[in-house]
Every structure is written in structure tokens, then in C-alpha cells.
Write a structure and sequence with these properties.
heterodimer, A: five-stranded antiparallel beta sheet, 11 strands, B: seven-stranded mixed beta sheet
């Protein structure tokens, strides 16, 4: 079945780069997403990548997709304390027009000053 | 622009009491709508989704139900709350088509005592 896996925790120093990894199982996924959740808040869409792309860059964020290995990563350059949050990877499902996404368990990013 | 509202923001209810959480979307028509539960700040569990008025799909058997009485209104209900219903409830919407990116509301924190 469809599944998305992420490591649970990552700690980095302010100013360093952070790399959050994700693996997924549905090879027919059309889009893959990264969401950010700050404490007590809803999920904020950070970026998404179409499955026929290898890389997408948006300011400090770089998404890399290895479709062969079903591996997705999110790199945050010059990580700031405000980047501390839970980051969720999600894949679209082959379920018609329902728009359902499969989410990973989330990676808690801790940024130390 | 589109916005999504959820209320209440926080709710404390006794075991056995009824529940009604409301979600409304503005600025779009005929969206897909979703209810998720997040326990202990971790992964998201999809509870219900709806592709149109009166059309509800349940993802997991449980003590909750959902209704969509209007195009942009999604309600999560229970007749008798259980302790295990405590959690953070998130509503989301998406536009039909590709990509069907989901946009999340601010969430409702429910504590059942």
C-alpha cells in the first residue's frame, strides 16, 4: 500500500543547512509536497514538486527528487531559529479527483542558536 | 484570495457529551474538503473527505461523523465523546484538478476529560 516515511528528529545549528529526508512507495504519485507546522498551528504549504522534475529551488528551500529510489529531500539553507517546526512530506494518491494525500509522520527540526 | 476558518479554536468537553466542529472555506467553489486528526503533535490521520455537498467518505471506523450541508461548509460531529477523541483536528481544502494541493485551517484543539 501507499506509505511515506520520515525520520522523526533533526537538530542543527543556526546558519547551517538542514536536510530533511522522505521516502515514499507510490510510484504513480504525480506530486510530492512539503508542509511546515509550527507549534499549535495548522500546516503551511512550503513547496511541491512535480514527479517529472529532479529539483526545485525556492529561495532558501531546495527540493530534490530521486524518482528511481522514491526519495525526496528538503534542504533549508542558512537555517534560522524561526525554521524550528515539524516538517511533513506528502505524496498525492492515484485516487481520481479526491485530492487525497498520504502524509509522513513528520520530522521535528530543532535549530540551536 | 481563499481563506479557511475553523471554530472553536479550543474545546474542553466531558466524556459522553456531543461534539460539533465547524470548518468553512471562502473564496473558492466546489472544493474538496478534508478532516484530519493529529495526536500528540505527530502524524496526520485522515478521518473524512468530501468531493461535494452531501458526499462524505470515511477513512477509518470511529466515533465521529461528518457532514457537508453547504458547498463550503464541513462539520465534524460526535453524539458521545470518548477520551480517545482528544486531539488536534485540522480541516483542509483543495481545488479539484492537478495539482490538488491541500490548504489547511488553523485547527481545533479538543480535550475530552
Amino acid at each position: 500500500g501507499e506509505d511515506v516515511e520520515q525520520s522523526l528528529f533533526l537538530s542543527v545549528r543556526e546558519g547551517d543547512s538542514s536536510v530533511i529526508n522522505c521516502t515514499y512507495t507510490d510510484s504513480s504519485s504525480t506530486y510530492l509536497y512539503w508542509y511546515k507546522q509550527e507549534p499549535g498551528a495548522g500546516l503551511q504549504l512550503l513547496t511541491y514538486i512535480f514527479s517529472n522534475m529532479d529539483m526545485k529551488q525556492d529561495q532558501r528551500l531546495t527540493v530534490l527528487l530521486n524518482k528511481k529510489d522514491k526519495h525526496l529531500s528538503l534542504r533549508i539553507a542558512d537555517t534560522q531559529t524561526g525554521d524550528s517546526a515539524i516538517y511533513f512530506c506528502a505524496e498525492s494518491t492515484s485516487s481520481g479527483n479526491t485530492g487525497k494525500l498520504i502524509f509522513g509522520q513528520g520530522t521535528t527540526l530543532q535549530v540551536k542558536p | 484570495s481563499q481563506t479557511i476558518h475553523q471554530w472553536p479554536a479550543t474545546l474542553v468537553q466531558p466524556v459522553g457529551s456531543p461534539l460539533s466542529l465547524e470548518c468553512t472555506v471562502e473564496g473558492t467553489s466546489n472544493p474538496n474538503l478534508y478532516w484530519y486528526r493529529q495526536a500528540a503533535g505527530r502524524g496526520l490521520q485522515l478521518l473524512f473527505y468530501s468531493v461535494g455537498i452531501g458526499q462524505i467518505s470515511s477513512e477509518v471506523p470511529q466515533n465521529l461523523s461528518a457532514s457537508r450541508p453547504q458547498d463550503r461548509q464541513f462539520i465534524l460531529s460526535s453524539k458521545k465523546l470518548l477520551l480517545s477523541d482528544s486531539g488536534f483536528y485540522l480541516c483542509a481544502w483543495s481545488v479539484k484538478g492537478s495539482p490538488e494541493t491541500q490548504y489547511f485551517g488553523p485547527g481545533t484543539r479538543l480535550l475530552v476529560l
